[in-house]
Amino acid sequence: MTTGELVCASRFLARVLRHDPALAGLRLDPQGWAGVDDLLAGCRGAGVRLTRASLAEVVETNDKRRFALSPDGTRIRAQQGHSVDVDLGWEPSVPPALLHHGTVGRFLPAITAEGLRPMTRHDVHLSRDAETARRVGARRGAPVVFTVAAGRMHADGHVFRATGNGVWLVAAVPPEYLGAPVTPSP
Ligand code: HQG
């Protein structure tokens, strides 16, 4: 597949596997999995041509490893980012002392007042390093990066989970755990 085709297929899969399984006539199981055969048939029905081989290519080449196949290759799910109700089963774990969150200036007043909220997703997404957070913020405009005192939060009883691709999830980040917002140099 060309890079453009891979990106297009990845966007469609993210929409189906995170937000709108009915778009491909699917239902996800409680842990977010869909059958690969059902997904391929559903994609055909939705006018998106995807073979088993190209699906495997999307999973393997995806820049953020957004999707995972089950060990036997018969099922697929998104690793995080859902708006539909799923329990991904990531175990609580101990975060590093500091994590990072990238956003944009227009959200600063709300974030400074009420902290980070998951908005339309299940959880707040935090990055291991500031550069990744900068890229997450840059999706929306000039990025601004917060450090999050994850170690202190964890000690205070907040539950953190790491996804299969290195994103850290937490229900919310109260403002007292946020560092001063930093505008990284481009
Ligand atoms: C902001 C992408 C107002 C938050 C990325 C963000 C990531 C608030 C936006 C992953 C707020 C939500 C997640 C508050 C947070 N008031 N705005 N209290 N608290 N916000 O997309 O973290 O491509 O749901 O800063 O790379 O940007 O989908 O979250 O700007 O890894 O795989 O509200 O999504 O990965 O936006 O991105 P999002 P995010 P994928």
Protein architecture, described:
With 186 residues, this protein is α+β, with helices and mostly antiparallel strands. 32% of the residues lie in helices and 16% in strands. It has 6 helices and 8 strands. It has helices spanning 3-19, 36-45, 52-61, 108-114, 130-138, 150-155, and strands spanning 34-35, 67-69, 75-78, 99-104, 124-126, 143-148, 161-162, 168-170. The strands form 3 sheets. The chain has a 3-stranded antiparallel beta sheet. Strands 5-8-7 form a 3-stranded antiparallel beta sheet, with no helix packed on it. The longest helix has 17 residues, at 3-19. The protein is globular, with a radius of gyration of 18 Å. Ligand HQG binds next to helix 4.
Distance between the termini: 32 Å
Helix run count? 6
Query: Largest sheet, order of strands side by side?
Result: 1-3-2
Total of domains:
2
Order of helices and strands: HEHHEEEHEHEHEE
Rounded mean pLDDT is: 94
Q: Give me the Rg, rounded.
A: 18 Å
Which CATH-level-2 architecture of the largest domain? Alpha-Beta Barrel
| Helix-strand category | alpha+beta
Bound molecules: ligand HQG
Our estimate of the beta-strand percent is: 15-25%
EC number: 2.7.1.-
GO molecular function: transferase activity
Family: Belongs to the KptA/TPT1 family.
Keywords: NAD, Transferase
